[in-house]
């Protein structure tokens, strides 16, 4: 390993205090984590590749590092888990040098600090290819019980946090993973099913429906459309963008009908919650449009000239 790489890892090590359950993080051949008997652990991993998941130099190294961790934290939020330890493997483009690597990790570590995740290990290599970043995050589910995609029941209310659509304008790099919201939700209600919106509201709803063996009816007027969608320019409705754009990293979840109103009145965080529909026992996915019509809602979102 080149000397530069040792210095890079050394600096990461100095910047990374171990927080429980990490007993030993960067510095040995493997990390050591305490694991109380009977506890469940949640693990998620994502691989981000230059040219596919981000472009450089259009995207700064710091934002690439931030997003690489943020997408994993969003997955943990979707399981209602609190992140504990992160592992980061880098294939660094040799010609970009040390500063690029430092800036990448600055962005990643700032987000790790915000959510008190310990960078507990990883691997650092360099080559003549583009940047590849692999991040793995471990977490502990609230009440020792992760929330799965498969728990939605007929009659459940369907909720979404925040607003959807238009994230490609920049929000897909700067979003805050909904960890705080997920933790608060588990204090207030029993979550039946949950997913984070990466593919798009409609597509990710279909993941819940498929895993749970149920259907849904959405109310188009209730779907929160992000201000980033802006005015119509591309012939697609604003609603279509909210349903299909993806990378919103909002939480989509269901709760029992009796918990729905209770959740809305007890909700005390700044992030809005919207009830956008109901789970049904048939396997269809439909949507009530603003003009009173009912349409089938396929996984890839939906186009309607009168929508939203
Ligand atoms: P080994 O050769 O035994 O795999 P390395 O020299 O690759 O060890 O890594 C030394 C230590 O630095 C290990 O604890 C490893 O987990 C950590 N490490 C290496 N690269 C990174 C990185 N990008 N982020 C966090 N930890 C890293
Ligand atoms: Mg190694």
Describe this structure in words.
It is a single chain. With 308 residues, the chain is of the alpha+beta class. The chain has two domains: 19-144, PurM-like, N-terminal domain (60s Ribosomal Protein L30, Chain: A), CATH 3.30.1330.10; 157-296, PurM-like C-terminal domain (Phosphoribosyl-aminoimidazole Synthetase, Chain A, domain 2). It is 29% helix and 27% strand. The protein is built from eight helices and 13 strands. The protein has helices at 3-14, 61-78, 97-114, 171-174, 179-188, 201-212, 238-244, 259-266, and strands at residues 22-24, 32-33, 42-49, 81-93, 118-127, 132-141, 157-161, 191-196, 215-219, 251-255, 273-280, 285-288, 294-296. It has a seven-stranded mixed beta sheet, with helices on both faces. Helix 3 links the parallel strand 4 and strand 5. Helix 1 packs parallel to helix 3 (97-114), helix 2 packs parallel to helix 3 and helix 2 (61-78) runs parallel beside helix 5. It starts with a helix and ends in a 12-residue tail after the last strand. Adenosine-5'-diphosphate binds at residues 1, 9, 12, 26-29, 88, 90, 119, 121-124.
Give the topology:
Blueprint: H1 3-14, E1 22-24, E2 32-33, E3 42-49, H2 61-78, E4 81-93, H3 97-114, E5 118-127, E6 132-141, E7 157-161, H4 171-174, H5 179-188, E8 191-196, H6 201-212, E9 215-219, H7 238-244, E10 251-255, H8 259-266, E11 273-280, E12 285-288, E13 294-296
Helix pairs in contact: 1-3, 2-3, 2-5
């Amino acid at each position: 390993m080149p000397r530069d790489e040792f210095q890079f890892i050394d600096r990461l090590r100095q910047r990374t205090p171990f927080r429980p359950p990490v007993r030993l993080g960067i510095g040995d051949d493997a990390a050591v984590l305490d694991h109380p008997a009977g506890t469940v652990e949640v693990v998620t991993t994502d691989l981000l590749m230059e040219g596919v998941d981000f472009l450089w130099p259009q995207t700064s190294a710091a934002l690439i590092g931030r997003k690489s961790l943020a997408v994993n934290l969003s997955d943990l939020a979707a399981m209602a888990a609190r992140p504990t330890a992160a592992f980061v493997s880098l294939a660094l483009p040799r010609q970009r040098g040390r500063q690029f690597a430092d800036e990448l990790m600055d962005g990643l570590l700032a987000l790790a600090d915000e959510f008190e995740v310990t960078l507990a290990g990883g691997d650092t290599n360099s080559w003549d290819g583009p940047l590849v970043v692999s991040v793995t995050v471990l977490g502990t589910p609230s009440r020792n019980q992760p929330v799965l995609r498969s728990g939605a029941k007929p009659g459940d209310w369907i909720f979404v946090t925040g607003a959807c659509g238009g994230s490609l304008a920049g929000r897909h790099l700067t979003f805050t993973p909904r960890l705080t919201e997920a933790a608060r939700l588990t204090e207030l209600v029993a979550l039946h099913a949950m997913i984070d919106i990466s593919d798009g509201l409609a597509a990710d709803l279909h993941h819940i429906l498929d895993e749970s063996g149920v259907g849904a009816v959405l109310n188009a007027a209730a779907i929160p459309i992000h201000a980033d969608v802006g005015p119509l320019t591309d012939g697609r409705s604003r609603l279509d963008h909210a349903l299909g754009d993806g990378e919103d990293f909002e939480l989509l979840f269901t709760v029992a009908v009796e918990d729905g109103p209770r959740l809305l009145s007890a909700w005390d965080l700044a992030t809005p919650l919207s009830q956008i529909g109901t789970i049904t026992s048939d396997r269809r996915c439909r949507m009530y449009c603003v003009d009173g019509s009912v349409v089938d809602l396929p996984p890839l979102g939906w186009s309607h000239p009168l929508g939203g």
